[in-house]
UniProtKB/TrEMBL annotation:
Organism (species): Gregarina niphandrodes
Protein name (database record): Proteasome subunit beta
Entries under SUPFAM superfamilies matching the protein: N-terminal nucleophile aminohydrolases (Ntn hydrolases)
Keyword Cytoplasm appears in the UniProt entry: yes
GO cellular component: cytoplasm; nucleus; proteasome core complex
Listed PANTHER family: METALLOPROTEASE TLDD, PROTEASOME SUBUNIT BETA
One term of GO molecular function: threonine-type endopeptidase activity
A Pfam family of this chain: Proteasome
Length: 260
């Protein structure tokens, strides 16, 4: 039976050895997701996939990437799942504390600024977050949309897409987005953009979830629609927009004669 005892490192000065060989480089890991949000005349449409990946391994297909901060604020998560989930849920606590202290709802600008300040304090420490914060402000009677990065930067805009599949989503959004979209057309645009991103990006997939932010708060339009069902739907259709008409129209793709 081997005797128990302390095992010492095979070097003269362990303390100096650790200091000399310690790596200051933060851990790098592959991330995959697609989240998007855009403002239009009917509010804000928010859509995301549900896949979580660990490098090339698909860890989950059921991740909830839209964080319901409160009844009128939503946040999205892209990057490290733990970082985004923790800090956005912590943001919901800060928003509730603001309501209790001030006796009024926190604005979207204030909420996004709180999150940006947190990220600024932890910049350079390995946070992996690319989030969007959106909601309705009763003080201005309008919706707002902000992008908050893990370096503390904060940008207000009308259209954002975050994640490894955002390039493909932007291709659809930049082509067909207009301010005067109807609610149904905005929903179709969000679904189509997410579908194309997941179809081409290996880090995106699972199911699509779509939320609508409006004057009365937010509504969950699609709980979980499988991307395979979207593929069967969109593979035989094309999106055609007539610039002379106020809305988008989905039309059936023309049949093409098969040739040998």
């Amino acid at each position: 039976m081997a005797s128990l005892g302390l095992v010492f490192p095979d070097c003269e000065d362990p303390k100096s050895f650790v200091k000399q060989n310690a790596s200051s480089k933060l851990m790098q890991f592959d991330k995959g997701t697609t989240t998007l949000a855009f403002r239009y005349q009917g509010g804000v449409m928010v859509a995301c996939d549900s896949r979580a990946s660990q490098g090339s391994f698909v860890a989950s297909q059921t991740v909830q990437k839209v964080i319901e901060i409160n009844d009128y604020l939503l946040g999205t998560m892209a990057g490290g799942a733990a970082d985004c989930s923790f800090w956005e849920r912590y943001l919901s606590v800060l928003c509730r504390m603001h309501e209790l202290r001030q006796s009024k709802r926190i604005t979207v600008a204030h909420a996004s600024n709180l999150l940006a300040n947190i990220f600024w304090e932890y910049r350079g420490r390995g946070l992996q977050c690319g989030t969007m914060v959106t909601g309705y402000d009763d003080s201005t009677d309008s919706t707002s949309l902000y992008y908050v990065s893990d370096d503390g930067s904060r940008i207000q805009g009308d259209l954002f897409s975050v994640g490894s599949g955002s390039t493909y989503a932007y291709g659809v959004l930049d082509t067909y987005y207009r301010w005067d979209l109807s609610d149904q057309d905005a929903l179709e645009l969000a679904k189509r953009a997410i579908y194309h991103a997941a179809h081409r990006d290996g880090g995106s997939g699972g199911v699509v979830r779509v939320y609508h932010v409006h004057k009365n708060g937010w509504s969950k339009l699609i709980q979980a629609e499988d991307f395979f069902d979207l593929h069967k739907h969109y593979s035989n259709e094309i999106l055609k927009i007539d610039p002379t008409k106020p809305h988008n129209h989905m039309i059936q793709a023309p049949e093409v004669a098969q040739t040998l």
